[in-house]
Predict the 3D structure of the following.
Amino acid sequence: MSDYDILIRGGTVIDGTTLPRFRADVGIKNGKVAKIGGIRKTASADRVIDAGGNIVAPGYIDIHTHYDAQILWDPYCTISGWHGVTSVLLGNCGFGFAPIPPHMRERAQMMMTRNEAISFETMKEGMEWDKYGWETLPQWIEHLKRIPKGVNCQTLVPLNPLYAYVMGSVEEAKSRRPTEAEKQQMFALMNEAMDHGACGFSYQRCGVPSVQPDWDGSPMPTDVIPDYELIEFGRELGKRGEGFIEMFDGAPSDHDTVEDFMTSLAEASGRPIVRNILLANDKDPARHEAFIDWLNESHEKGLQVYGMGFTVRSPTLLTFEDWSLWDNAPHWHGVMNGPYEQRVAMMKDESIRRGLREDIDKRLVGGLGTSGVAQELRVHGSAGYAQLDKYVDRGVAEIAATEGRHIADVILDIAIESEFKAEFVGNAYDTSAATTAKVLANPYVVPGISDGGAHCHFVVQGAYPTDLLEWMVREEGLITAEQAHYGLSRLPAHVLGLPDRGILREGAPADVVVYDPQTIRRTPSWDKMEKLYDQPAGGWRRSQRAEGLNFTIVNGQITFEGLECTGATPGEVLLHNR
């Protein structure tokens, strides 16, 4: 029998804790890190990896994904699995597929079509829900245990399906507040899920109109949830003394600011809270700087609050066929939702166009985290409409100036002439490396945001681990690899309550990446994306891979060797505090 299953020789270890790197061999046995350093030269192994010139680090933990559907047909949760992610968190932003009674299955899938831009037909075919038939959250967790997985997964309790399940329907959950008996039932169901290993609860609250609405453009149940109900959920976690809260919150509330509300929620729950999204902005630094100052002050008070940082260079490719992230602009909300013919008629209506121009002039359309402001869009493709070829690779602002038209008219006319198929390109993250480095320097900011499994027609944010190492560590030299791996692995593991993950130490599960720091990069390059038709029901997505990532190891088994998948599925359901 060999001494080790895998022996990684000659690499430079970065253990995820921010301790300085060191050269050491790493031995893996029975899914665990058996030994780091001090391994004799005569030691035997079933597989020896020559890691000379490579970094050996803990696998990445992606705590902001929407793989709740995709994990059922893609065991590796790509694109995250292609970029060294070894553990993913499901159930974010209040969305998921349990608890859901059988008659609400299709309605639950419809909820994901606009806000997360996941194809209904892809979900319908790929999830095989009717075949496997889970309903409750414990049943969902048991189903996750049964399916083959190339990554580990953990799940939150999503509040949208929870409200709909208890109150009888999605529409009922939007239209009234729950009774006291209904709230108690929801608390009981959340506790039952956590007894089975769920790790807390999640919600989005975007107000009306919502930037991430339901399939018909109406708000989600949690978009209109009041402060006091969320605080009551927080107190339930406080009673357990475990779990955390993931929030996507920017709606008006009874508190003066989101930070004030987070303070109340953190005090009521005593649990960690991660806020999505922390956006750095060169043009308006006061907002993110104030949030970072608040993070520091809160931790001095003992409150466990964290920011989910949008730190990945992210071009956005959009068409009006399914673009959804302008839905919160008051006038654009109407023309972005509904049947095609209705939308075209509204776009051609001069009285409606006046409002659309007004929203653009006020810079309410787009922005960081979506597509960049509308004024900075370029025409990326004419979709075969020859009369539009003259606009390709030109900015809409330049076209408007040249032709004496408003930017809104340029965008709308190109969209209509191409039957909504023409592509525009923007930049979801237009912030300097120096500003990004200041955000990443804060120990309470988790880098990302992945959104893996969602918005796949528009962005490839799941490449964020590779981009961080390529851009901020190697190209810019503004953060160290030690800082990067703390943010990619140890910090998210701490937030999730996973003391033995996100770290390389003896006895810990062997979730490991081995990469060349000189060649690690996104491919195609960070500003290019390939189109893959590899989803159920003929669905497609945009994609990037990682070059220079030589090995990904999950629970002691190699899942990717370079760009090649080994077919191993050693992933586990990570049960909170168990």
